[in-house]
Structures are given as structure tokens and as C-alpha cells.
Write a structure and sequence with these properties.
Chain lengths: 199, 199
């Protein structure tokens, strides 16, 4: 319907996650209407991020440096590592402001259906990080999904024999949620993990 | 929370219409995970569209050429012009496959509140297009909003004295809609514009 470059732009934008054809069209027209410098600044941000961002040599978080900001931060607790599937999970944990330790990004979960085994994750590198004996606790913060749980189980079998404290994030009702709308599995977990109060 | 280029990319993406901080983050991680050539192809599509797309010299539709594809198309009916506010409205009309005439993009609507008067729209150019007497009908397809209606009224006062057939898109109930959920104005228009059947 449109001439080449507009159609190309809409097609490229449609490939982004969560962007359907309508949103892609809306964004394309917005960009064509913007000041040129704003548009080039978006294009440059995309290219620049892709060119400079890579994985941290220690924890496999995304970073533009050799070692990421969290690993370099001397105020962080170096005795505890939170193991996550993806680097975006780090952002989710950081937003809580509850955690002051280090991270380790696995790069996914053990998922035979996707042909992804333990050797495809950064597990060997995690074990290397533990060799100096500084780390005393590992939090397994993989997703509460079948594959995330399987990955946590696999890791706990490797890590517990090393004499480390291995913990898993609590499962239960979301804060502000409603019992009536909780699925059976979540409610079952909440009952199983119930905590005594008033002691 | 993130190092420079990732945060820059998320910030740039958040400025797009309909993209909140969560979607921007999701798209940023998607791009960092993509093949580099796919990412550069997106950045190029953005830059290329911005560099090559401009307004058609005849109808002010977006095009990469001097004159847009619709204006050049010899199979289109040159006796009728559909006047729209924005070039994206052309796409909406084209999708119906009901219309085979030409277009004219005003570049907005008459809106005193936005400090936009008739002189800021491509009205003079529309009148110039009518001088050779080929055009016999003008469809005023501005939006059914206050400013769109005001613009249509303004144009009809200019065009009717020229002896042209001037029409306006029908207002009424959306197809597949429900009387119960129609607002009073739309239902009022539907009653006012009722059509006799069975004749």
C-alpha cells in the first residue's frame, strides 16, 4: 500500500516483540513526523547498544565494559550469588532494593525440548567463581516454571555437596492478590510454604 | 540500573507512541539478543525512511518519489478527490478497496486551540488542483471529531460555490457494534442519517 521505505520500516518494526501491524504503522508515522535528529538518535541508540553491549566476563550480565557495574561495585556483598536465567531478571531483582550480593546469569534454563542441556548454560563458570571459597550462599532465582524448577534442582545437586547454603526464592501468593483468583499450584505452594507468625 | 548504552536504548524506545518502560525494556533485550544484521537492518530502515520519505508534490501523501504512487496511477479515477487530515488516513481508506479516486492530505485540521488555521493546511493547493475542471466530486473524509467536522464545514463553504459535488463520510453505528453501547451522539447521527430500505 505504501512506497518502499515506509513499508520496509513498518515491516521491520512489526518484528519487534509486542508490536503488531497497527502499532508498527503508528510508530512509523510518528517517526516520519519527528524531528530528524530525534529519529537518528533512536537509530544510533540501537546501533550503538548492539555494537558496544556484550556479556560481563564474570557474571554474564549485559554490559559495555569488560566486567559489569555490579561485579565491580565494592559495596556489594561478595559472599552471596543470586543465580538467574536471563540478565533482564537481574533488573527485576535490583528493583526490589532487597538484595546487595552478586549475580550469575545462566543464559537460559535446562530445557530438553529446546535441546538445551546443562553444558549450554554458564554453569561451569559459576563453579569456577566458587573456587576461592569467598561465596557462602547461592540463591537459585530461576523462574518458577517447570524448566526453571528443573534447573534449580540440577544446580542444587551440584552446589549442596560443596558445603554452600543453597536457597530458592519463595513461591506463594502475589502481594495484593486474591485467594479466589490464585491458581491451585500457587495456592498449594503458599500452603506448603506457610510461615508461623507471632513467635 | 543498566550501563549507558542499554539505558540509552530503553530511553529512546520509551519515547515511541504506545511503548511504555516495560515494553521498551523488552524490545531492548530482544534487540541485544538478535542477530546483528537484523538489528542493523532495523536501524537502517529507520534512517533510510527518514532520509528518503517526503510529501507528494501533488497530494501531500508520504512518498519517496516526487509524486506518490496513487497520483501517478493512471487507472485511478481523476474526477474525484478524497480529502483527509493525515496521510495515514489514506491507508485506512485504501484498505476498504471501495475507493478508486485520488486523495488530498490537509496536514491536520483547523484547530484554533492548537493555533492551526486554514492557512496552515494544504487548502490553497487543493483549490489549485481543481482549476483544470477535471475534478467533479470532493469527499470530505476528515475525522468525525469537533475539529474534523469544523474543517469539513469550512471546506464545503469554499467548494460548493465552485459547482462541485461535495460529500461527507456517513456517520452512524459501527458495523458489528451494539446499540446498547453506542454513545448518544453516534446513535443520534445514525437516526438522523437513517436510510429507507426495501425501495
Amino acid at each position: 500500500m505504501y512506497d518502499g521505505p515506509i513499508q520496509d520500516l513498518i515491516a521491520e518494526l512489526s518484528r519487534l516483540p509486542g508490536i503488531g501491524p497497527k502499532s508498527a504503522q503508528r510508530i512509523a508515522f510518528y517517526l516520519l513526523d519527528c524531528l530528524p535528529e530525534d529519529v537518528y538518535s533512536l537509530a544510533n541508540a540501537i546501533t550503538h547498544a548492539k555494537e558496544t553491549v556484550h556479556l560481563c566476563a564474570v557474571c554474564f550480565n549485559l554490559t559495555e565494559d569488560e566486567v559489569c557495574r555490579i561485579c565491580r561495585d565494592s559495596r556489594r556483598d561478595r559472599t552471596i550469588i543470586c543465580v538467574v536465567e536471563e540478565s533482564k531478571d537481574i533488573m527485576a531483582v535490583e528493583r526490589t532494593r532487597e538484595y546487595k550480593g552478586l549475580y550469575h546469569v545462566l543464559g537460559g534454563s535446562i530445557s530438553p525440548i529446546d535441546n538445551r542441556g546443562p553444558a549450554d548454560l554458564h554453569i561451569r563458570e559459576l563453579l569456577t567463581r566458587l573456587q576461592d571459597g569467598v561465596v557462602t550462599e547461592i540463591i537459585l532465582a530461576t523462574n518458577p516454571t517447570t524448566v526453571g524448577e528443573a534447573t534449580a534442582t540440577y544446580l542444587s545437586r551440584l552446589l549442596v555437596p560443596l558445603g554452600l547454603t543453597v536457597t530458592r526464592l519463595a513461591s506463594g501468593l502475589p502481594v495484593g492478590g486474591d485467594l479466589e483468583y490464585a491458581d491451585e499450584t500457587t495456592l498449594g505452594r503458599a500452603i506448603e510454604g506457610r510461615r508461623r507468625i507471632g513467635v
